[in-house]
Amino acid sequence: MRRLWLLFAQTVTVCLGVLFIVATLRPDWMSSAPTPPAKPSAPAPGATAPVGQVSYAAAVAQATPSVVNIYTSKHINVPLIPLPPDPELERLFRDIPGFSRRKESTSLGSGVIVRGDGYILTNYHVIEAADTIAVALSDGRETSAELVGADPESDLAVLKIPLPDLQPISFNGEHKVQVGDVVLAIGNPFGVGQTTTMGIVSALGRNRLGINIYENFIQTDAAINPGNSGGALIDTSGRLVGINTAIYSETGGSLGIGFAIPAQAAHQILEQIIQTGTVTRGWLGIEPQDITPDLARAFHLKQTDGVIIASVLRNGPAWRAGIRVGDIILALDGEPVVDSIGFLTQIAPLPPRGEARLTILRDGKKRDIEVQIGTRPRIRKP
Predict the structure, then answer these.
(1) Residue 98: its pLDDT value, please?
(2) PROSITE patterns attached here (predicted)?
(3) Which of 79, 260, 315, 356 has its CA 20 to 30 A from that of 164?
(4) In this structure, which long-range contacts are made by residues 301-310, counting pairs with CB atoms below 8 Å and at least 24 apart in sequence?
């Protein structure tokens, strides 16, 4: 029995010695916590981005071949003697021999290939009064462009180029743009070359800016600068959301307030210009005016929605239907009329010679009047 006890004591002593040596020399062997995983190394150049990393490279790669640079030139008469900025003086001296000299003026902008057969959408102010129009593609090809038609009232124009293997951009279709959506602006700012900037949709339905007659802009804080006009505003899938048109700026550079024409409206104008060479809009021959609080009190109205008729063109569509000055229009074909800008926008897409129903308020009573839509006269610039 004594011998077994001695054997047990020696075994315990040896085990404790081994445990002491291990704890002293390799304490990590004694820890029960799992070894943390090794930190991943940085990906090699050209490798795919890790899962979860945000990148819009695919959207840009899809849309970039569809965005072009536009260069225009025109000849202008420059007076040899400085004159005050008076149109009447300029018109008076314009035709006097030797008073002015012709000078070539150049400008730049952007455009978007919208059809594989060469049609390009851009802004009217990019190509206005141009003698020559040149287009440079992202793949290095260059060519002259033909003006198919223009719509100054929406500041859109359609060009056509005679090149094969073009990649048209995809429209956003029925996908509804929302405030807060991420968007990318692609264009040629300041002529530095094709550039992409990122932002969000800041607001929708911007109007009363004094830029165009018909205004329904998408506002974005994606950087838009001179030269971006006519370029593409795309979503994160590379689809066309709008045509970049204007900026609000006190310095000439981007202040984070840019405006784009919605793609759906641009597509409708594109199709009309391709088919007929011009844009036809509905017209009633009236001058609507917003209902101010003072007018609402004067007419004993409980709301300020709707428009009051300030003038009616004699023998125009509204006149023939019986609309008179002082009538208040509340709805068009059952759709509420909110203000004068919105009312003009509601009338514009109506087909000429078609019928529309106006809900009006006259002498405190509502009534419906059927009116035949006319064709809006084209405004000619001097």
Answers:
(1) 58
(2) PDZ (PS50106)
(3) 260
(4) 301/328, 301/361, 305/330, 305/336, 305/337, 305/338, 305/339, 306/330, 306/336, 306/337, 306/338, 306/361, 307/337, 307/339, 307/340, 307/343
Q: Which of 151, 155, 221, 327 is catalytic?
A: 155
Comparing 122 with 344, the larger pLDDT belongs to 122
Structure confidence at residue 295 (pLDDT) = 81
Beta bridge partners of 372: 355
Which of the following is catalytic: 107, 154, 229, 254? 229
Give the Å distances, CA to CA, from 163 to 71, 111, 117, 195: 17, 15, 8, 23
The correct answer on CATH 2.30.42.10 for the domain covering 282-375 is yes
CB neighbour list of residue 81: distance below 8 Å, 6 or more residues apart: 99
DSSP letter for 175, please.
P
CATH topology identical between 182-276 and 282-375: no
Cα separation, 4 vs 46, in Å, equals 71
Residue-wise pLDDT for 255-301, tens only, equals: 789 999 999 999 989 999 999 888 888 999 999 988 888 888 887 77
Which residue bears the tokens 């008179």? Answer: 324
How many CB atoms neighbour CB 66 within 10 A? 23
User: Which tokens in the block code for residue 229?
Assistant: 């006009």
What mean pLDDT do residues 7-23 have?
A: 70
Are the C-beta atoms of residues 347 and 358 closer than 8 Å to each other? no
> Is 86 one of the catalytic residues?
no
Half-sphere exposure (Cβ direction) of 320: Cα atoms closer than 13 Å: 11
pLDDT of residue 381: 47
The pLDDT-based confidence of 100 (bands split at 50, 70, 90) is low
The active-site residue, picked from 66, 100, 125, 254, is 125
Question: Looking at residue 42, what is its pLDDT?
Answer: 47
Sorted by where each begins, the domain ranges of the chain are: 63-160, 182-276, 282-375
Least confident of 192-196, 245-249, 320-324, 333-337: 245-249
| CATH code for residues 182-276 | 2.40.10.10
Integer CA distances (angstroms), 42 to 45, 57, 175, in order: 9, 19, 37
Is residue 232 within a helix (H) or strand (E), and if so which, with residue range? strand 232-234
Could you confirm whether domain 63-160 is CATH 3.40.630.10?
no
Give the DSSP letter of residue 171: B
